[in-house]
Structures are given as structure tokens and as C-alpha cells.
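Weekly modeling sync, notes
Attendees: S.R. (lead), two postdocs, one rotation student

Agenda item 3: backlog of single-chain predictions. S.R. asked that every request posted to the team notebook include the full sequence so nobody has to chase files. The rotation student volunteered to paste the first one in as an example of the format we agreed on. Action items at the bottom.

Example entry:
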Amino acid sequence: MTLRLKAITREDHLAFVRNRRSASHMQLPSWGDVKPDWRARSLGWFDGSDRLVGVGLVLLRPLPKLRRYLAYLPEGPLIDWSAPDLDRWLRPMLDHLKAQGVFSVKMGPPVVARRWSAEAVKAAISDPRAGRLGDAEATAREPRAFDIADRLRAMGWRQTEPGGEDGFAAGQPRYVFQVPFAGKSLEEVQRGLNQQWRRNIKKAEKAGVKVVRGGYEDLPAFHRLYVETARRDRFIPRPAAYFQRMWTALTAEDPDRMRLYLAHHEGECLAAATMLTVGEHVWYSYGASTDRKREVQPNNAIQWQMMSDAHELGASVYDLRGITDTLDEDNHLLGLLRFKVGTGGEAVEYLGEWDFPLNRFLHKALDLYMSRR
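Predicted structure, as returned to the notebook:
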């Protein structure tokens, strides 16, 4: 059966997502409003009965002085990845985008390949032979994911190699850390936290740390802490306008799509974090904290409040987003991995991002440019 692909309205796109238990926030129509340097398009796949069976948010980045575009589907598209004939889904997309002047397509299949329990990650960190998480024995493997990867390669798709010494790709992280909530009471989730986490939560409560929900007007306080965090953890911070745009776009689509949490102690804001919700999937999106009064444990307090609220919302998974895959003790991101492992969840590896060059010359020129940045 042939699938047709065409542009769809934001309303149809959002209605399709609402009927799914989980979808990346980067595949929502509103995410295009967060990225003004890209041109966003909603695409829909239709079956022989003209029924909408898949959607994708495509971000188009124009090449300077040329009417040619890089197309990017972050953590998408939302199609039937288990279909035996993936080409039936992906070929119409490539044909459509090529007709729009696209020279290269990048996508991130939302397909899990491997999982490591918290115990397996801790063992890997302690093992001097395990230089990277991928070298450690996985707790669970998803055979269909490797079959999908083989089929993508056979179609001409190329897997993007992780960039940077910390194993993060230029796009979205391949490795994330998640806490499964499905079928668990909040008490069971709490029992899954390691002893240090439970102790720190009690310490914060005893010290009088108060975690509150903020609004748009509290974004400047969040951003001040975020910039301080960027200096400490050695990354380039996003401007305040990015978070203001993100709040406006996401909450216009759904008032509860994005939340802001702030941890106060004796009138001072010590930590802040954003939380995103789509269906039964909740993400800890951005976090920020100061070096002051770290002994009152505001970071543990704010995470536990977010986890509690996510559980109350009916989340099946609480997603702490990207982790480094390097297990080098000298790596400054290893401390963040240890912090997330304390939640008792699991490290999850996705298939990563894949490229399809529609114009090999322009695609190679882009690769060369990116390698020299």
C-alpha cells in the first residue's frame, strides 16, 4: 500500500500527537516557533483511506545566497518505525523534501537500541576497562533497533558520528537517562533513589528549602543561575530570549506544556529547572544552580518535586535527557552522570541521528564546514 505525504496544518499535526502516549517535544508544531532561524513545516503521511497515519516536524535551514535547504527532523518523524518496509515511509519524505530544494536530510529515529540499569552504569564507571558506556554490557538490547539500523544503511542513510570528546552529537543526545514510572507508586519511585539522594532530600527539607512553580516573570532569575552554571560546567549558554520564546510558544499550545521550578532558601533562589510534558513523557529540560549553599541540597529538592509532580500527572517515564557516554574520571560531565544514576533509573541509547544526502556535493561541503567550526 502506497503512502502519500503532504503538508498538513498545525491543528492536524497537534491532534495526531495528542493521540499518542509519547512523542518528543521537538516534534510538536510549537517547536518550530522556538527556532526562528529555521523554517518549520508540518508533514503528514496518509494511507489509502486518506487517514493520517504519521507526522513529522521538519526544520529547514537555508544555505546563504542559495535556494537550498538542510532539513532536520529532531527526534522524529513520528511514523511506524517497526514497519517491515521503512522505505515506503521514508521515500515519499525524501521525494517531497527534494522538490522543496532540500540538499540533505537529518533525522533522529525515536527508537531505543540498548538500556543499562543504574547498577550496570555504576559498575561500568568503576570498571577501568570500560572507557565508554557503549563498551559495557547492556542490561537489555532491542533487536528490532539493530534491524532498523541495517535497513536504513541499505537505503543509503548514514549514521551521524557523535561529535566532541564527551560523546554528544551535534544535534540531540544519543544517550539519555530515564526513570520508569509505569506501574509504580510514588513511594516505589522514592525507594528506587539511592541512599545519598534520599538523605539529601531530607536534608533540604530540614534546612527549609522551598520549591515553588514559577512563571514567565521568573525566567530572568532562572537565566542568571543558568549563566552561572554554564561558566562552571563549561558550555555556551543560550540567551534569555530563547527561554522566553520557548515559554511563549509551548504554553500557547498547551498551558501545562512547560513548567518552571525554583528552589528558595531564606529568600535566595539557589536552583531552577524547566520541565516539559507531552502525553505520558515528562522531561527535565534545563537546569541551573549556584555554588552558594550547596550544603542545603537544592538540586535534589527541585528534582524530587518535579518527579513527584510528573508522577501525579500520570507520567510513564521521567526523562533527565542527555548524559555523557565517556566514563573517564577526569571528564567534568561524569559528576552529572553520577547525579542522574542516583535516581535509580536507567541509561538509554537511541539509534542516534542519520543523514541522507540528496545533493552529495552540497552535503559534503556542509560536512567540511561543520568539521572546521
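Discussion: group reviewed the output briefly. The mean pLDDT is 93.
Action items: rotation student to repeat for the remaining queue; S.R. to check formatting next week.
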